[in-house]
Amino acid sequence: MRRERRRRVLVLCGVLLVVIILILGWQNSFSLRMWNQQRGLQAENGQFMLEGEPLRIMGGSMHYFRVPKEYWKDRMLKMKACGLNVLTTYVPWNLHEPQRGKFDFTGNLDIWSFLNIASDVGLWVILRPGPYICSEWDLGGLPSWLLRDKDMQLRTTYKGFAEATEAYFDHLIPAVAGHQYTKGGVIIAVQVENEYGSYAKDANYMEFIKTALVRRGIVELLLTSDNKDGISSGSIEGVLATINFQKTEPILFSYLEFIQSNKPVLVMEYWTGWFDYWGGDHNVFDVDQMVSTVSDVLTKGASINLYMFHGGTNFGFMAGALHFHEYRSDVTSYDYDAPLTEAGDYTSKYFKLRELFSKHHVEPLLPAPSLLPKGAYTVKLKRSLSLWEVLHLTGEPFKSEVPVNMENLPVNDGNGQSYGYTLYETVIYGGGKFQTKGHVRDRAQVFVSTQSVGFIDYKNQDLDIAEVPGYRKLRILVENCGRVNYGTRINDQRKGLVGDVFLRDVPLRNFKIYSLDMNSTFVSGLNSVRWSDVSEEERIGPAFFQGALEIGYSPLDTYLCMKGWKKGVVFVNGKNLGRYWNIGPQETLYLPGTWLWRGLNEITIFEEEFAGSSLYSVDIPLLGRTQYVD
Fold first, then answer.
1. In terms of Cα–Cα distance, which of 385, 394, 388 is closest to 450?
2. 157-200, pLDDT tens digit by residue?
3. Of 35, 138, 381, 597, which is most buried with the most CB atoms under 10 A?
4. Are the CB atoms for 323 and 330 separated by under 8 Å?
5. What span, in angstroms and rounded, lies between the C-alpha atoms of 293 and 64?
């Protein structure tokens, strides 16, 4: 009996001991996981560590604001299937705060949904919140209302810029902070500004941005990002420096080791292609050269982020510009010759990268998702409407003795005009030499009454107006073709007429100024005006042309072909598809199927010069004659 009781006690003790061991083991395991979760991504001993394991970052850039929301998950699944584990995105201040103090995080700007989808797909996120993002985006993502201050110094600790940045970060950063890794989210790193070393106007600025992020709850690994010319000036203490390039140079890795020894190397932007500008060629980058460089980076033990993995589209008026020796505005497409096309289709780059990245994964990669089908449609042009017939839709014109640039116009609740066109109207006597002396930003069509007399831009700064005795109305329709997004000219990006214009060397005075930002309210208001049937005589611009695109089944992605048209903007069901221009290289505009619906779709075109005789869409893009970049 005693022996049986002793046996039972021993069994019970054994069971209790096992339970205690299991509990202690679970607690230790939980504590370890919590310790890892609290620490987040680490950059120590020459490698990244996450969850107690080494992490090789194989990332790709995709910007939520350049891709229809309905396609975010499709693009992310394609990234995951290519072998990527990290997604990087910028945050565009100018879209999220279009007017000072008025924020928008809805629809295609719903960054919270974007981050949640990344989590569902299984991608970590590196967030690049700016405030400046470059990205071939208008003013590098900075809102144009900052330029109402005549003394504004962008990207510095100048009081006006610093206070605006603080107010923006007050709204943005606490909200994204909840999506950080240590809070259970997907953000594993946050970038401090962007390529500041190439600007470096203020020695205190980067520390100001870093402090602004940390003070509002950013606890994850902080990064800077610079090209080879800026890395020496762009790095700051306590922040991991990363490098941007398209071609490897051994000295870059050596220099990174010199300024931050024993840290992992991250190529934050490996440029898989390049962007295009109006009047140039479509830039492409050799696929084998790209794969060779990516392979070399990985062989060196470094991490990499592909910029871009999926470029998307500069919808609306959001494409930026460069201005070094001459002004060049960027095209609407941001295809970038990336591994995924503008419409999310696979390229040879995608499959060669997938083959390369698969060698760095233990488990087989997910199957590549099926592609979305494309369609081709005919648009029936039905009616037209002259610009001169709709000026009343802009409200009462602003009257000023001297020209006023668009940003300082008293419109949009005191925020000025950001994008589109501005019409300046005055009265002249006779004719003679009309001169702008560089005060037109960026391009203008000049009219006497409603008759076009020519174009003005950075190169052509004067034209002749025929001598006719008597008073006539002079009209100057100025287009903002895109603000510079990179370089030292960023403070000089006010648009419209930025100074006096002259006739016979006499400055013109007493203007009526119409703000033609062509927002959704203005475009919808066009239907309240009496239109005319389209005829050969009424194809002359500036005018609006409207047509119907009828779909009898589920809408598909397509490309609107603008051959035969000159220059202007397209609106589809009220949404701004972007600019077109017959100087190329881009000949088609990407039209997402998600912007269309079954039945009749309304296509509205603002044509500056002369409308084409027809309009149709195709199922493949026409991005122009290619030029290989090196």
1. 388
2. 999 999 999 999 999 999 999 999 999 999 999 999 999 999 99
3. 138
4. no
5. 27
For residue 195, indicate whether it is catalytic.
Answer: yes
- 381: which strand partners? 547
CATH number, position 316:
3.20.20.80
Q: Give the residue carrying structure tokens 């610079």.
A: 226
For 547, the domain range is: 378-385+529-628
Which among 594, 601, 621 has a CA at the least distance from the CA of 69?
594
Asked if 612 and 562 count as a contact pair (C-beta separation under 8 A), the reply is yes
Asked if residues 268 and 225 have their Cβ atoms less than 8 Å apart, the reply is yes
- The 3 state secondary structure assigned to 182-236 is HHCCCEEEEECCCCHHHCCCCCCHHHHHHHHHHHCCCCCEEEEEEECCCHHHHCC
Q: Is residue 341 part of a domain?
A: yes
Active-site position among 97, 193, 220, 269: 269
Q: Residue 73 in 3-state DSSP?
A: helix
Residue among 623, 280, 317 at smallest CA distance from 481: 317
Q: Is 269 a catalytic residue?
A: yes
State which of 460, 490, 517 marks the end of a domain: 517
Tokens 């024993």: give the residue.
262
Residue 321: pLDDT over 80: yes
Residue closest to 385 by CA, chosen among 580, 539, 568, 516: 539
For residue 323, give the nearest of 145, 483, 153, 150 by alpha carbon.
Answer: 483
Q: 469 in a domain, yes or no?
A: yes
136, 193, 195, 220: the active-site residue: 195
pLDDT at residue 22 tops 80 = no
pLDDT value of residue 32: 35
Per residue in 418-429, pLDDT (tens digit) is 999 999 999 999
pLDDT level of residue 597 (50, 70, 90 thresholds): very high
